[in-house]
Amino acid sequence: MKIALIAHDKKKSEMINLAIKHRETLSKHELYATGTTGTLVMGETGLSINRMKSGPLGGDQQIGSMVAEGKLDLIIFLRDPLTSQPHEPDVTALLRLCDVQSIPLATNAKSAEIMLNALSKNEI
Questions:
Q1: What is the pTM for the complete model shown?
Q2: Are the C-beta atoms of residues 34 and 51 closer than 8 Å to each other?
Q3: Which of 19, 31, 78, 94 could anchor a disulfide with 11, C-beta 3.0 to 4.6 Å?
Q4: Is residue 99 flagged as an active site residue?
């Protein structure tokens, strides 16, 4: 599967912890991430990740383009719903594209856990 990892600034440590916990499962798949998230996760896990630009610099749009072209199978996007994001229109567009294309999307750590556990059991 092709999996994208995205995390707002206040959620990056959660993404790192999630990636560490599910490293074995994630290592079996082709990973993509926005710039900073990808750099941090790679540094802590050693996972190979194709990095896009940082979210506010167009990374969310790059991931969105991949969704629109049918090039992603699952997205884990740990969002911070309590902090205003300067690129909120890009975030909203990405979420809408996931719905349009029926791409599984986890927007918090618990839903990501459920998806990664299912993935490890070949249930997705």
A1: 0.94
A2: yes
A3: 78
A4: no
